[in-house]
Amino acid sequence: MTIDLDQMTDAAFARLRKDNSRLTLQYLDGAQYRGRFDRRLAAFAGQARFVREFDSLDAPGALVAEDFLLAGDGSDDGGDGVGAGDGGPLRRAVLESAAEGLDFGLGEGLGYGVPGGVVTLDEVLVPVVAEQPMVLLGRAVLARLPEAADQDAADHGAAGPDAVSGFFLLERTTEPEAIKPLLSGRKLRTLRAFTEALFAPRLDQAVLDLDEIVDSIQEQVALIGRDILGTVKLVLFAIERLDFFGGFSNQSLDKRQRLIRNTLLDPDSDGPFGLFRDMARLRALIYAGYYRREASYRRIGFVPPPDRPTHEGPAPERAVPTGRLSGGESFDVIVVGSGAGGAVTAYNLARQGYEVALLEAGPLVANAEITHNEAAMTAKLYEDGGLQTTANNDLVIFQAHAVGGSTVVNNAICLNLKPETLHPRARANHPFDLWAARFDIDIDRDRFYAAYDTIADFLPIREISETQAGPNGRLLLDGWAAYRQTLDDPDDIAAPAGRFRKNYRQDGYGCFQCGYCNTGCPYERKNDARGRYIHEAATRHGLKVFPRTRVDRVRMRDWWGGALKAQGVYARVPGEGGVWIGARHAVVLAGGVGATTAIMRRSGLSHNVGNQVSFNVGSPMPALYDREIGAQYGVQLATYVDLGDYLLESLFHPPLGLAVMMPGWFADHFDRMHSYDRLGSAGVLFATHNSGRARRDGAIDYVMSGEELALYKRSLATLARVHFAAGAVEVYPPSIAGATLKRGDDIEAHLDHFIRRPGDATMSSSHPQGGSPMHGRPEWGVVDARCRVHGTRNLFITDASVFPSAIRVNAQWTTMAMAHYQSSRDDWI
Q1: pTM score
Q2: HSE on the CB side for 314, CA within 13 Å?
């Protein structure tokens, strides 16, 4: 088909309005342009063909792309003038911003605009794909706006240049279609009434009105997916019945706020309304809906990374070639799961000469597709949009859903189990001693510690700089230095403390602390499993990578000696349905605790499977300081203190992430968020017992014990004292009630009052472990000391699900080391 952009005002913009799309023009400097251009090509490679033409400006105020050829995929868009077609000339194109509502995202205070409402471009790239049929990338000239020139003259005594020439990206962005119908009738009224009750004390100061907030909440639900919609509706149903006779949404604002306080926030509400405490989870969606908007986070003083003087463009993409299975293929080894364990295993086996297929249920997300839109990235990169929980909803479990697994969205923290790095109490209770005594697993420590070193050299792993640690990282260490002067225990006084070691790039593309590690790195500065192990194995050692391939089960057959042999896997591939893939030598599972357990059980291997699940549990605890901190100018997790039974770790988030984890309700939450630059934050991390159990569907049953809850509160008390030692005037413990802890308060009494049960606090884990535990005896474990499934000849597991107990420290490096310790053996499979 032929597309004539002269028709854009009639056809294209009609389409944009119909499907709730927007066009945004972003200013890019030269370095950003080059990187964004390369990233766009990488992102669209294999999906569309490109033709570029260069034309000079023939008249001010017009975009000229004479005989510019658009090559598409042959599909049609229904004849409305926008979409991928069969190729044809692109004629004169004029984008009339004023008439059609084109949104120019040029940055606050840039002071340049479009004369006469017309964009002038003289170099254009138009990739056309089904998912995003309109992208223009080019060089443009924008005229100085008269009002901006006048303002500059007033502010600085002189105006800027009359025009600015640079590179611009014009993108079509589509909000989720049919957002409003997600909720209707009573449930929509309930959401609106609940949201109004939360924001009412400060609604007049908010940058969005109530209807805009409610629409944004629904957009966030749509981003996560319809799987969460049923849960939201159930919660809204329950909230409506907080007033059984009259209905929550029919009550006055004052009564609605009283109902929330009495049923959700009162720690004494053990009666029937105590069941509604879990509805506090809804606040996460509401605050995410508000703080996902740029206007909201600019209002609190957040400076987006592109507006900072330290900002740099993206490093060159380390592309990973991928394939698609049609069924019937066969490989030497199939590795299921591409995170810390699976990627290292696949790399080692491919390097040894095996033909290896790496199967990943999630997508391959190129860095060009990663943005600083926390809402969209959380929905895109996390299981259940980051709202996955244990069966009782007490513990949020963060697990990634992408090639590279959790290494794509973690903070790159690398702590190990070498004795010299641990607190004396941790050395005395070393996991390997426990594994030998209780689980009959004797780890060759010299080899295992050498595996740490091999990984550290390959990634590489180095201590972060003082600049990268930023003000929030220094705050924790300063507070600890002051607090430890009050201690008597010599072991605690000498507790290991410092800046984290991380797997950031060291090749001239170092991290410049944008602060968005948890939603992926759009700058390609992190040596995650995808960018390092998988890229290297795929480009140099023949590894075949198959994203969006969800393994259902392993096909097992009887073998000699009574053992079972893995012959391959059944998987589901988009567009193909169920397919069979054969394995000549071995199958390795490394999909994480939930996925590995589910695959094992669907494969008929249920003995001991799902047992001994444990966690490293954490909670952030922000505090208000007596001075401006500027915590946003540093990496998210920067420094730590190891106190043996638990760790303290500095932790700060961009606005959406901080809003979701910030304790408090009503005006308290609003005021805390609007003190953004005076906030400092850190978290606690401790290991649970291995009392959890993973179900057949991957869900996890876990109930925190009284002993674990006491340890949790003890760690929070220590962190509160460290905050106060660093100069905090208020501390916000992570209780559902969101009460304020002030200097001079009885810290233990406060925590005992507001956190009586695990469900009274906001806790999460990014490090589930166990479910396929190692044990020397088949009757008690799932895998042996070589990570081979008991009773099988060639089925292995190399993720953290083999850990028979929690390792206490952040798990990435140890998971990689375990995979290397096993798969680097020449005789392993």
Answers
A1: 0.80
A2: 24
